[in-house]
């Protein structure tokens, strides 16, 4: 009789342990799924508003973005090798398109580093960076998870085209016909 009670208790105990482990596995899987979704890399999306209100011009703090028309934006970091590789494409774009379109650089680095980078690389277009080095705020507000980005922003602040990583002039120029100048 004792053996039967002992066997039954053992049987119930195993079922309780299996049920508890099943619940634990479910909870952990749910948490893992939530973490994966929330840690997806941020990216600038076509159709999103891209806020440039908190940016300062490296050359003249009073000169703000001209938002009356479309802008071609080059978003970069001074320590990014792919950004440096894009510089020739961006300079060529500026030389060939600046009479048709406003072109700006946006550095997601400190004002000092950005100014030094602009000078040492002879960047011809105006470069802006977050005011008071509020880089994290700018990056979070605009979903800039990685750099470089080449962006086409319309007069309403909406991204019309977005190239992430190494872009070349032909890619930029092929989409140039999509730009509305009003």
Would you kindly provide a written description of the structure presented here, covering whatever features stand out?
By secondary structure, the chain is an alpha/beta fold. It contains 5 helices and 6 strands. It has helices at residues 2-38, 81-97, 111-120, 135-142, 169-174; strands at 55-57, 71-76, 102-107, 127-130, 149-153, 159-164. A 6-stranded mixed sheet has the order 1-4-3-2-5-6. It is elongated, with a radius of gyration of 26 Å. The termini are far apart.
Topology of helices and strands:
Elements: H1 2-38, E1 55-57, E2 71-76, H2 81-97, E3 102-107, H3 111-120, E4 127-130, H4 135-142, E5 149-153, E6 159-164, H5 169-174
Parallel strand pairs: 2-3, 3-4
Antiparallel strand pairs: 1-4, 2-5, 5-6
Biggest sheet: strands, sense, closure?
6 strands, mixed
Which residues form runs of ≥5 with pLDDT under 50?
Answer: 178-182
Number of helices: 5
Nearest-integer average pLDDT: 83
Distance between the termini: 92 Å
What distinguishing features does this structure have?
182 residues, alpha/beta, six-stranded mixed sheet, 6 strands, 16% strand, elongated, disordered C terminus
Summarize the structure.
The chain has 182 residues and is an alpha/beta fold. The chain has helices spanning 2-38, 81-97, 111-120, 135-142, 169-174; strands at residues 55-57, 71-76, 102-107, 127-130, 149-153, 159-164.
């Amino acid at each position: 009789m004792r053996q039967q009670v002992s066997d039954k208790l053992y049987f119930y105990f195993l079922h309780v342990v299996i049920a508890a482990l099943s619940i634990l596995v479910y909870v952990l899987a749910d948490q893992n799924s939530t973490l994966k979704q929330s840690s997806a890399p941020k990216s600038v999306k076509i159709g999103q508003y891209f806020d440039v209100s908190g940016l300062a011009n490296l050359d003249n703090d009073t000169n703000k973005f001209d938002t009356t028309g479309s802008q071609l934006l080059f978003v970069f970091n001074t320590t990014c090798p792919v950004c440096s590789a894009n510089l020739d494409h961006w300079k060529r774009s500026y030389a060939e398109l600046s009479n048709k379109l406003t072109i700006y650089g946006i550095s997601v680095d400190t004002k000092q580093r950005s100014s030094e980078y602009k000078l040492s690389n002879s960047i011809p277009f105006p470069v802006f960076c977050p005011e008071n080095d509020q880089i994290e705020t700018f990056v979070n507000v605009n979903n800039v998870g990685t750099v470089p980005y080449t962006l086409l922003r319309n007069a309403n602040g909406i991204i019309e085209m977005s190239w992430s990583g190494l872009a070349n002039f032909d890619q930029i120029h092929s989409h140039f016909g999509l730009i509305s100048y009003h």
